[in-house]
Automatic annotation (TrEMBL):
One Pfam family named in its UniProt record: Exo_endo_phos
Gene name of the encoded protein: LOC140015159
Taxonomic source organism: Coffea arabica (Arabian coffee)
InterPro entries in the cross-refs: Endo/exonu/phosph_ase_sf, Endo/exonuclease/phosphatase
Chain ranges of the Endonuclease/exonuclease/phosphatase domain: 78-173
Name of the protein in question: Endonuclease/exonuclease/phosphatase domain-containing protein
């Protein structure tokens, strides 16, 4: 069996009251959560993690490990479906942006950037992706790409009412 030392869970489908018992049952040394309790990160030695920032839509950790040449900041995201609420996410992430460390921003952004990231439903409007592209430019991060399925979310409706989107992604800086 693998000896997993670091796990992040988005939408754990369990209440915050259960995080400690789940951490202990899974054998992790520590657990962190965002403000709304829908992002959990479990970690054990040799990982050392400290919270850089948290909100209802994200959790940012500085992560150290003996195999890493220096610490890195990892921001886990579970963005709101509301454009207005996502604006507060972008600002919070910019506040957590490291000056000279590697930075990964990963998770469910609840927004797409281009027409190829959607199938079904209303046609893609270019304005829909502008907010994420603006954040990426200001934060100096880029999409790391992906392997696997083109889409990461589906509304599970039947036939012509079905919509597929790529909402999950990994953004990294060039440091």
């Amino acid at each position: 069996m693998l000896d997993v030392k670091f796990v992040a869970i988005c939408e754990p489908k369990a209440g915050m009251a259960q995080i400690e018992s789940i951490q202990l049952r899974l054998g992790f040394d520590a657990a962190e959560a965002n403000a709304s309790g829908d992002i959990w990160v479990f970690h054990s030695s040799p990982f050392v993690c400290s919270v850089v920032g948290r909100s209802s839509q994200h959790l940012s950790l500085q992560v150290q490990h003996p195999w890493l040449p220096r610490p890195l900041v990892v921001s886990f995201v579970h963005a709101s479906c509301s454009l207005e609420e996502r604006q507060t996410l972008w600002q919070a992430l910019l506040t957590n942006k490291p000056n000279s460390l590697p930075w990964c921003v990963c998770g469910d952004f609840n927004v797409i950037m281009e027409p190829q990231e959607k199938r079904g439903g209303q046609p893609f409007g270019i304005n829909k992706g502008r907010e994420l592209l603006s954040f990426m430019e200001e934060a100096a991060v880029f999409n790391a790409g992906f392997t696997g399925s083109t889409f990461t979310w589906c509304n599970n409706r039947k036939r012509r009412a079905r919509i597929w989107k790529r909402l999950d992604r990994l953004l990294i800086n060039g440091v």
